[in-house]
């Protein structure tokens, strides 16, 4: 009898990926490989050598402009400032979940809508005050 140099091993993470309770992979003795980690189990401190050599340096967390969006809610342009607040909250949630590109995109949209809301609100307030001082609109 001749002994076999291959065996079947259970790999962690495979069960989550393919939906089965047990995951087995047949490999030979000379070709052992580590089980790939799912994105939810990746450690922030550990990265492969190819990822660290080609990846851009960590830039920190993107801004969500929540304070600006809340400030814009005091302007009388209610649909725009509410949407800016929603985009800001979505940006914060995306950043917490690790989607930095989505968080940056949503943060920029929140900033844009907040600035538009503040500018339009300022124009509306100035017009209302100037027309009411002239006597065209009663206070």
TrEMBL record:
It comes from the Eukaryota. One of its GO terms (cellular component) is membrane. Keywords: Membrane, Transmembrane, Transmembrane helix. The keyword Transmembrane helix applies. Coiled coil: none annotated. Pfam families: CD225 (PF04505). The chain crosses the membrane at residues 65-89, 110-131. The keyword Transmembrane applies. It is found in: Membrane. Belongs to the CD225/Dispanin family. This is TUSC5 protein. It comes from Pelecanoides urinatrix (Common diving petrel). The gene is Tusc5.
């Amino acid at each position: 009898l001749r002994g076999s140099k291959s065996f079947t091993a259970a790999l962690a993470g495979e069960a989550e990926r393919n939906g089965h309770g047990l995951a087995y992979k047949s490999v030979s003795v000379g070709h052992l490989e580590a089980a790939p980690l799912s994105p939810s189990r990746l450690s922030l401190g550990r990265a492969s050598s190819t990822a660290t050599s080609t990846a851009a340096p960590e830039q920190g967390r993107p801004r969500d402009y929540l304070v600006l969006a809340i400030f814009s809610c005091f302007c009388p342009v209610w649909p725009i400032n509410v949407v800016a607040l929603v985009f800001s909250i979505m940006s914060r949630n995306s950043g917490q979940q690790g989607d930095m590109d989505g968080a940056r995109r949503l943060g920029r949209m929140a900033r844009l809508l907040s600035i538009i809301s503040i500018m339009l609100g300022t124009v509306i307030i100035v017009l209302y005050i100037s027309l009411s001082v002239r006597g065209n609109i009663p206070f």
